[in-house]
Automatic annotation (TrEMBL):
InterPro entries: BXL (IPR044993), Fn3-like (IPR026891), GH (IPR017853), Glyco_hydro_3_AS (IPR019800), Glyco_hydro_3_C (IPR002772), Glyco_hydro_3_C_sf (IPR036881), Glyco_hydro_3_N (IPR001764), Glyco_hydro_3_N_sf (IPR036962). Coiled coil: none annotated. The keyword Signal applies. This is Beta-glucosidase. Residues 687-756 form the Fibronectin type III-like domain. The keyword tRNA processing does not apply. The lineage of its organism: Bacteria, Bacillati, Bacillota, Bacilli, Bacillales.
């Protein structure tokens, strides 16, 4: 048959296959089911498909699987019951083989997997979360990380990932802040394009590429009160100028899948928005891929949003709006056929959705090369190269927020005894973030273990002490006495505080009074961040602050490390700590990276991609707010504790005055901005040069300043280098009240420096159009 013959064109193959399909088979292509529920693991590591799944395949009722290899407390797949990398690849081959050989037309399945910061499968490399990866301000490094994730995922048969998350954060009380790139649309757009290049840039049919799914489309990070899936109150102009920007850049980079957001915008749920899915995404941007819902989002049209009365109406509405595939739901499978029979849904929209999905399956090469090599999966997954890459991303993304009197780096020869105190000092899952699979003992290098290995290599591991002191959320102070006893023996205390996005993996815990491991978990969850875990405050939970204050009273040098998924507002710590490091969730190699930074083996170069407020009452607070942002509060002004772009180094950098050339351009022309940067300190290091733009007079209100360029550069002591930014019409444009992107004549202030709060300025003038 034509669709089985690779010598025919893509469109010929798709059209031939579509013409042979029954309505039920077409509907089946729009259905994605939970993959881990389709089989049972045998004692020898092979799998047996369930009879229910076999029947679904034989009847053509399923087109894709969600997270067949996902392992976590939700799936109830553990290290003992899950599949190794080799077994996972063999399992997906088994599933695919049955789908191809036992279905009427032999249409292969599309396997979608979760890969926010590494494939969420047993044995995969666990990278830092996206918030830390963004903090590297290194798009090339992030692209390399995404490519490594694609290699591991595709080697097991996964062909799509539900990342990157492109939501712009407006309220970090939102639990999914850790999954994002932060608060800036330009930076998010550059990282989004890098993610697409890394994940699928080698071609969809390449053995080291997977589909990038852009989510959540759109406005999800600007929800009311920072609550997950709450309504979004945003005008269309702001939507186009901020939240849609990274999605557009990722589509331009070639992304072929988009996931709708749970939220509504101005009364219209994203899952049923023809304006977003057809007018903006496909007509304006030329997107030629497929659109997938978030899990059970279509059901919310009936139960939650209540904009329709029945499942039939919901499926018809979503299909017409542009939905092609339903993630792990049952709306299409239960209601679309009846909707078509009753005339509520139009079969032309069904054909359109099926055509889009089949095109991607052909482009993935699934019809011609449907299987993977289990030996290759075993070889590539969690390779030494990927482990080192995870470490390098952590090194470059960890941020030095404060360093009074050059407390850091620690001089190992004269430091004396070091005490690691705090609930995140030696808790592996707490440094990995949400969407993480079970991890074997010893794979995750904690702060304590990282310092221990560093000191052991120098024969000084007897200088290291440890006490947990307290837990993340628990109000118990039973561990204080032991922690203060340990801290009292030390010369320097490293307090490791913060949060946790760890699900209940059933791991052991520690006795707070002795620091010894216990066999069983205490039963109290420490999770205070992650999907669905939103907060009313952003201070430290439990008694962490009290523990820190008690340790500080001992008069020791106090270094605070935050391991967490959202900014922490603790003014007391800002005032009293000698040094503060923001490590976000640094992944499996985080402990090594932090030890290297603490002892000066690595010069910190991470920069904030989200403002850190002084108080929760300042929220929302972000650097690119409007000039007309309103008056100050009675209690405090609107300045954050640490601004967007902030991050310290163990060396210093000096900037020359920026030079704009030409300084006078027309709206369709470009200009360059050149600046000389010199390492004026005694250590080599990375500097992140940041360019901000201010439109001084405009026809619509504009942000006070906007990031429009950045450059990460390595400089030796005393070395100077010239950095050149190019400003194109796209950098200068605004979105009008009519939603047109235009460059208006006038003056633009250029600021180049090391953060959004510092820098030297120049002026660029745009003349009226010729």
């Amino acid at each position: 048959m034509i669709y089985q013959d690779a010598t025919y064109s893509l469109q010929e193959r798709v059209q031939d296959l579509l013409s042979r399909m029954t309505r039920e088979e077409k509907v089946g292509q729009l259905v994605q089911i939970f993959g881990w529920q389709t089989f049972e693991r045998n004692p020898d590591g092979t799998i047996t498909l369930t009879e229910e799944f076999r029947q679904q395949i034989r009847e053509g009722h399923v087109g894709a699987l969600y997270a067949a290899l996902r392992a976590d407390p939700w799936t109830e797949v553990t290290l003992e019951t899950g599949l190794s990398p080799r077994e996972g690849a063999a399992a997906l081959n088994t599933i695919q083989k049955y789908a191809i050989e036992q279905s009427r037309l032999g249409i292969p399945l599309m396997f979608g997997e979760e890969c926010s910061h590494g494939h969420m499968a047993i044995g995969a490399t666990v990278y830092p979360v996206p918030l830390l990866a963004a903090s590297t301000w290194n798009t090339e490094l992030y692209e390399e990380m995404c490519h490594a994730v694609a290699i591991e995922t595709r080697s097991q048969g996964g062909v799509a990932t539900y990342s990157p998350v492109l939501d712009i954060v407006r309220d970090p009380r939102w639990g999914r802040t850790e999954e994002t790139y932060g608060e800036d649309p330009y930076l998010a757009g550059e990282l989004a394009a890098a993610a697409v290049r890394g994940l699928q840039g080698r071609g969809l049919d390449a053995p080291d590429s997977v589909i990038a799914t852009l989510k959540h489309f759109v406005g999800y990070g600007a929800s009311e009160g920072g609550r997950n899936a709450a309504p979004v109150h945003m005008g269309m102009k702001e939507l186009h100028e901020v939240d849609l920007v990274p999605f557009r850049k990722a589509v331009e980079a070639g992304a072929v899948s988009v996931m709708t957001a749970y939220n509504e915008i101005d009364g219209v749920p994203c899952t049923s928005s023809e304006y977003l899915l057809e007018e903006v995404l496909r007509t304006q941007w030329g997107f030629d891929g497929f659109v997938i819902t978030d899990a059970s989002a279509m059901n919310m049209l009936v139960h939650g949003y209540n904009i329709v009365e029945s499942g039939e109406q919901a499926t018809a509405l979503a299909l017409k709006a542009g939905i092609d595939l339903e993630m792990s739901g049952s709306m299409f499978s239960r209601y679309l056929n009846p909707a078509l029979e009753q005339g509520i849904a139009d079969e032309a929209y069904l054909d359109q959705a099926v055509k889009r999905l089949l095109e991607i399956k052909f482009r993935l090469g699934l019809f011609d090369r449907p299987y993977v090599d289990p030996d290759r999966a075993e070889q590539l997954i969690h390779s030494q190269e990927h482990i080192q890459l995870a470490r390098e991303v952590a090194r470059q993304g960890i941020i030095l927020l404060q360093n009074k009197e050059n407390t850091l780096p620690i001089h190992v020869e004269t430091a004396g005894k070091i005490a690691v105190i705090g609930p995140n000092g030696n808790t592996p899952y707490n440094q990995l973030g949400d969407y993480t699979s079970p991890q074997p003992e010893g794979k995750v290098i904690t702060v304590l273990e990282g310092i221990r290995q560093y000191l052991a290599a120098k024969g000084l591991d007897d200088q290291l002490l440890y006490a947990p002191g307290c837990r993340i959320r628990d109000e118990s102070e039973e561990g204080f006495e032991y922690a203060l006893e340990v801290a009292g023996q030390a010369d320097t205390v490293v307090m490791v505080l913060g949060g946790s996005s760890a699900r209940d993996f059933g791991e052991g815990t520690v006795d707070l009074r002795t620091g010894q491991s216990l066999v069983h978990n205490s039963g109290a969850s420490d999770m205070e961040s992650g999907e669905g875990i939103d907060r009313v405050d952003i201070n430290l939970t439990g008694v962490q602050l009290k523990l820190c204050q008690a340790v500080h009273a001992l008069g020791k040098k106090l270094i605070v490390i935050y391991i967490n998924g959202r900014p922490v507002a603790e003014p007391w710590i800002d005032e009293h700590a000698d040094a503060i490091i923001e490590a976000w969730y640094p992944g499996q190699e985080g402990g090594h990276a932090l030890a290297e930074i603490l002892y000066g083996e690595v010069n910190p170069s991470g920069r904030l991609t989200i403002s850190v407020p002084r108080h929760v009452g300042q929220l929302p607070i972000y650097y690119n707010g409007k000039r007309t942002r309103g008056k100050r509060y009675l209690e405090m002004d609107l300045q954050p504790a640490y601004p967007f772009g902030h991050g310290l180094s163990y060396t210093t950098f000096a900037y020359s005055d920026p030079v704009v050339s030409p300084a006078l351009i027309h709206p369709d022309q470009s200009a360059t901005v050149t600046v000389q940067i010199t390492n004026t300190g005694s250590r080599a290091g990375w500097e992140v040069a940041q360019l901000y733009l201010t439109d001084l007079v405009s026809s619509v209100t504009r942000p006070d300043k906007e990031l429009k360029g950045f450059y990460k550069i390595w400089l030796e002591p005393g070395e100077s280098s010239e950095v050149t930014f190019t400003l194109t019409p796209e950098h200068l444009e605004l979105v009008t009240a009519q939603l047109h992107r235009v460059v208006e004549p006038g003056e633009f202030r250029i600021q180049v420096g090391s953060s959004s709060a510092t820098g030297k300025s120049a002026v660029l003038t745009v003349m009226a159009a010729k």
